[in-house]
Amino acid sequence: MPDSRIGKNLADALNRDCHCIAVDRPALHHTLGNHLKGSGLPERLLDEHSDLFADSPVFLWDGHIEIMQSVIDAVERISRTSSYRDLVLSRAPPDARRDFGPRGVFYGYDFHLGANGPRLIEINTNAGGALLNLYLAAAQQACCPGVITFFGGKVDFGDVEDELLAMFRNEWRLQYPELALRTIAIVDDKPTRQFLYPELVLFQSLFSRHGINAMIADPADFSLRSGGLWIGDEKVDLVYNRLTDFYLQSPATKQLLDAYRQGLVVLTPSPFHYGVHADKRNLAILSDSNQLKALGIDEALIDTLSQTLPPTVVVGEDNADQLWKDRKQLFFKPVSGFGSRGAYRGAKMTRRVWQDIVQADYVAQAIVPPSERKLMISGEERSLKLDIRCVSYDGKIQQLSARLYRGQTTNLRTEGGGLATVFATPGGSC
Predict the structure, then answer these.
(1) DSSP label of 346
(2) Distance in angstroms (rounded) separating the CA atoms of residues 53 and 402
(3) 257-276 burial, b for 16+ CB within 10 Å, e for fewer?
(4) Which of 72, 215, 254, 368 would staple 114 via disulfide (CB 3.0–4.6 Å)?
(5) What pLDDT was estimated at residue 201?
(6) Which residues is 22 bridged to in the sheet?
């Protein structure tokens, strides 16, 4: 049997010392330019987003990938258990409690690599960056052909595009099995102002190049009439949802919510998907073995999560004093937060901020320090923090990516950092 330490030690060594694989920037510019032309975006797109893509990849041991998939399997199985689903949806708005069938596209399971392996720190249902990561992975170049071959060869752009299209078509069939998918609306709040607006344009290009009419829309662009959801004269079949109003509670989303409520459109991901998977209060249940046992969850699933999910609790008046005492070992996240907004490391938190947190909706999670990747940046060796995102569909990992950053929370604004391709190192199972 292979020695599992070989692959782990190799990944650690490569993250520390390897600088022989880098991004072919001209190739990346060329491919992005072809698919963004006519969009009105500036030609200096990548320069204006200079910290969006890291120049170097991250290396991850195969055994850790197996662990991550086992964690995702456990969460997915638990999320389909009626006792668990009833509990988490009991605190969601009524419109989020109905399952129309679709699985939800681009779930993001975010991990830190702790001293004892991967630890799940967050689940998202509107994970951005998956398509940008495809372009990045396809643009990797090595000092010699053998290096890329060792890690499984270059990404086949067309194959991955086909997989993404198949996912959206499957979402449509799960709700409307007898009809053809013709029109997709990609929705976000004031989309042209979004940092990842270029990715929305790339999705529009992807759908259009494969015969699906695609539009980028603000929620205010929708109207509900004639038994359907419309943008101008175009009837919308499916909405790819990038909104961070996860339960569609703002007045601006009323038309979209009404269409979703009536089953007139496929919305993916939806309030149902968010309520079952990504509401951060769910982490407090998933990390509580006793509560999972009370829900009748299988012992093997509980054991998997107890080893891989840091203890998480909902902040309230009843535990506020103890959490303040323990704050240096905790990270505080808003229940409906996203993109690290409103998140605080307890060691850096003031009393004033703490009082605001207690009055708001927050969870406290035991800190798992991120691992690091050493890079050459402007001729100087620097260490950047990293986290791993597993983008999944229907419980299966579609894509592995990393984010390299400095600071308290993940960001895409660190010199030399940004989105990074992940290469797996072989070496046996854990």
Answers:
(1) G
(2) 10
(3) bbbbeeebbbbbbbbbbbbb
(4) 368
(5) 92
(6) 141
